[in-house]
Specification:
Blueprint: H1 7-16, H2 24-41, H3 49-55, E1 56-59, H4 62-70, H5 74-77, H6 89-103, E2 106-109, E3 112-116
Antiparallel strand pairs: 1-3, 2-3
Helix pairs in contact: 1-2
């Protein structure tokens, strides 16, 4: 037995999950990403909101993600992403983006970013 969800319905389920921290825009971007992944691989993805909230996290910005992920001041992790603590915001964002893409998935949307846990 199988139920097919619309993009909007799947996003609504994620956004309304009281144990997740997905915004409506973030949930929609994540569902669209998963649908594109299905299309590109030709394999259906089972919609499991618990697994999705464990595999992805939403942040307001790339730098917020980096602060959460590294858990130390910028001066201590800047070298890990290939820059220094004095870099401008655009350079920091680009280096963080590259770091995430080298290690997992990054979904950018108007209002934040979603990163796969790695």
């Amino acid at each position: 037995m199988k139920t097919t969800l619309t993009t909007s319905h799947a996003a609504e389920i994620l956004a309304n999950d009281e144990n997740s921290s997905f915004s409506r825009l973030g949930a929609y971007a994540l569902v669209e990403y998963l649908e594109e992944l299905e299309d590109s691989t030709g394999e259906e993805i089972e919609f499991d909101p618990v697994a999705i909230r464990c595999d992805f996290s939403e942040h307001n910005s790339l730098q917020e993600w980096a602060a959460d992920y590294f858990g130390t001041p910028l001066a201590q992790w800047a070298d890990d992403i290939g820059t220094d603590a004095d870099a401008d915001d655009d350079t920091l964002d680009e280096k963080i983006r590259e770091y995430i893409q080298d290690h997992g998935q990054l979904i950018e949307f108007d209002g934040g970013v979603i990163v796969s846990n790695f």
